[in-house]
Amino acid sequence: MNRRRFLAAAPVAAGMLGGCAAGISLEQGLFNECRRPGGHRVLRDRLVRAAWDGVDATKAWDCHAHLFGNGRGAPGIYLNPGFDRPATLAARVRRAFFLNAACAGEDEDSLDAAVVRRLEHLADELPAGAKVMLLAFDHVHDADGRRRDDLSTFAVADAYAAQVARRRPDRFEWIASIHPYRQDAMAALASAAKSGARAVKWLPQAMGIDLGHPRSLAFYAAMRRERIPLLVHVGEEQAVEGAGRHELGNPLALRHPLDAGVRVVAAHCASLGESPDLDADADPAKAPRARNLDLFARLMREPRYASLLHGDLSAITQANRAAAVPEILAATGWRGRLLNGSDYPLPAIMPVFSVRGFARAGLLDEAAVPVLEELRHVNPLVFDFTLKRSLAWRGHRLPPGAFETRPFFDPGGAGA
């Protein structure tokens, strides 16, 4: 879109991206420069090399990376007309932020291929053996199991995610997304497992999934039989509206899959927003409010969930979640239960990160700032990894094992 009009609407769109002014930083401007891959010097910087010290790259699977597009070149992608061809200027700018982060270019007919091509280039700049796990994303379904395109912001079919991953098995794995209310949910799960899916991804608030619904409970039994884990968003959701069922993001609802024996990964460690503390009062209208991070931490302390509940590190370094970083760094009891993911392409959306903010807060060496800021334009996957490996709080750092996620997703494989 026209850059002058983009700039005029950017403050509005920035608010939509971050949800509040505290979640927005303009210190690196608005636009990803989308520098062409090709051995940039910053990728060989001492900070980047040091980030990989102690991490086995063959076990480093980025467990949270989004596939998307407009569906013009890939039948497995659905984009709601309201997002694909937005009516308001602010909505157009919001869409442009995401496409700029993926360096997809302006040719809508080739956008789907451009998104994948860019991600392949970025993955190829990781050390040999490192991989990116590509996320499918199912449509909203109603209580009767009917697909609701009208409520779905976007969707990425399992078959498409599997196809992209299959073309580059040296760099990609994939994660399925199957709405449990679907009439064919069990068959779809069996098919996904057979096709190599490493997990199932849900975003309950946007997809309209009640974790305690009878169909969800039945789905957990099937997941346990297939020995496939659940990657599920809990806490406040700001990136995808979809069904708009924000009450479904209460971390305490994770007890349903956990009690069914399913291994669960809580996306973002539930690091944003508040929910009713249903342990204090089962009535959501009467229950006191509690931070979602605290509710997640409560579950992490329960001995019965010690081998089942994990948290992923995707998005925790975004400006609107950065306040949670010291607590996560200092949570020594979570060692062995944290799994790194980048939430790609979000690390390349310039206004939603503040590298300098971490330096001001004493979590990052000032000398690392210019290196990390350049990395964002060159390779956001390397940026995300290097930033998290560089953070420290009162002597606490994320352990190397948090970045060696393959043993969790491939327990019987060579990386175990």
Description:
The protein has 416 residues and is of the alpha/beta class. The chain has one domain (56-354, 397-409): TIM Barrel (Alpha-Beta Barrel), CATH 3.20.20. The protein is built from 16 helices and twelve strands. The chain has a five-stranded parallel beta sheet with strand order 6-7-8-11-12. Strand 11 (309-312), helix 12 and strand 12 (338-339) form a beta-alpha-beta unit. It is globular and about 55 Å long. Mean pLDDT is 90; it is low at 1-21.
TL;DR?
This protein is 34% helix and 11% strand.
Average pLDDT, rounded to a whole number, is 90
Q: What is the subunit organization of this protein?
A: single chain
CATH T-level fold name = TIM Barrel
Gyration radius, rounded: 20 Å
Identify the CATH class.
Alpha Beta
What is the β-strand count? 12
Note poorly predicted spans: 1-21
CATH superfamily: Metal-dependent hydrolases
Number of helices: 16
Helix content: 25-40%
> Any idea what the CATH architecture is?
Alpha-Beta Barrel
The helix-and-strand class reads alpha/beta
Net shape = globular
**What is the strand arrangement across the widest sheet?**
6-7-8-11-12
Percent of residues in beta strands = 5-15%
How far apart are the termini?
Answer: 47 Å
